[in-house]
Amino acid sequence: MVEKVQAAVRTGPSRTEFREYPMPDIPEDGALLKLEVAGICGTDVKFYAKPPITGDVIMGHENIGIIDRAGSQFLERKGVREGDRVFVEHYVPCFKCQWCHQGDYRLCQGTDWRKNPDGLRYGYTSAERAPHLWGGFAQYMYLPWNAVVHKVPDGVSAELAGVVTPMANGIQWALFDCDVGYNSTVLIQGPGQQGLSQTVACKQAGASLIIVTGTKKDAARLDVAKQLGADHVIDVDAEDPIARIAEITGGEGVDVALDCTAGAGTIPILLGIEALKRKGGTLLIQGEVAEFPNFPVGKIANKYITIKAARGHNYRSCELALKQLASDRFPLDLITTHRFGLKDTDAAIKAVGGSEGVIHVSLMPWE
Ligand SMILES: [Zn+2]
Ligand SMILES: [Zn+2]
């Protein structure tokens, strides 16, 4: 066992420094996770360039690892054993509030770093707070009594399990929030790991039409979208997406439009509103744009559109995502495209926001 834990720490905008932290003491109700994979997503790209809080943070919020050591209470409560491979959700909820009791702990104030300066969340919590190991870009992570763990099914590799977060979001947003199911018609904007995971979830649920859009730099990703079940892909730089969607749907439009773009501003929302069916479609939005001048509220009302906000994943969507990964029904290895060692954390984050062949990046803290 190592005495000191190596970690990549964000110390400022686009700045990573390497630090050593003491190996924490593990109480009866806590555990130590030995990291295998920390997935990197678009949120990391955004918050690496513009940190939402000042001070040192060990990033990494999509974490897979092995229960290295644990207190007896932790093992009993969580139903896991030392040596088990687990997915640790980034939420560290209070388990006392209304939301926690309802099972919607993703909405708990105790894990809401945006609203609550004391909020605990892996990848978003100050490394100054003892016992410091609150992020996946490190060799070990500390798991208190209220960490949420899911056992990874046998046969699912750590790297594949690293895709569980976008897959859980796919199930949560498309299936639970927007009711995609048998015979649904869906527009998915953005063919990154999130959009591709939505494609898999929609296909598995029985959607009869899946259209995925991207830009000219997304040629390789759009090709993967087709292999994962998209019926049509549209390069919005090469053709008019509204005209093309009208053509594909015989002028009817789609039931559901999901925004999985990054940094595209108001454009995908406006396209989603146009692409939806004449009445009663559902539009899923992200929190990308803080303000929306001339928001077409009249059109929303006239088309009787329901707007849903993307907000992470619940326990059930995580469990279903792990089952999806274990089912081997889709060529998901097409998503896990790149891996980097801990010393290359800076390059790993930048790769996600960068070149066209990159879909999902795995940070391997022991490489
Ligand atoms: Zn993420
Ligand atoms: Zn709570």
Please give the alpha-carbon distance between the first and last residues: 17 Å
The number of helical segments is 12
Which percent band covers the strand fraction?
Answer: 15-25%
Helix content: 25-40%
| Shape estimate | globular
Largest sheet: 7 strands, mixed
Please state the structural category: alpha/beta
Radius of gyration: 20 Å
Unreliable runs: none
Structure ligands = zinc ion
Mean pLDDT: 96
Strand/helix succession = EEEHEHEHEEHHEHEHEHEHEHEHEHE
Would you report the number of β strands? 15
Topology:
Elements lengths: L3 E9 L2 E8 L8 E10 L1 H8 L12 E9 L1 H7 L6 E4 L9 H4 L38 E4 L5 E3 L6 H4 L2 H14 L7 E5 L3 H13 L3 E6 L4 H9 L4 E4 L5 H8 L7 E4 L7 H9 L6 E4 L11 H7 L2 E4 L5 H13 L8 E6 L3 H8 L7 E5 L3
Parallel strand pairs: 8-9, 8-11, 9-10, 11-12, 12-13, 14-15
Antiparallel strand pairs: 1-2, 3-4, 3-6, 3-15, 4-5, 5-7
Helix pairs in contact: 5-6, 5-11
Bound molecules: zinc ion (2 copies).
Task: Produce a short descriptive summary.
This protein is α/β, with parallel strands linked by helices. The protein has helices spanning 42-49, 72-78, 98-101, 158-161, 164-177, 193-205, 219-227, 241-248, 267-275, 297-303, 315-327, 345-352, and strands at residues 4-12, 15-22, 31-40, 62-70, 85-88, 140-143, 149-151, 185-189, 209-214, 232-235, 256-259, 282-285, 306-309, 336-341, 360-364. Strands 3, 4, 5, 6, 7, 14 and 15 form a seven-stranded mixed beta sheet that branches.
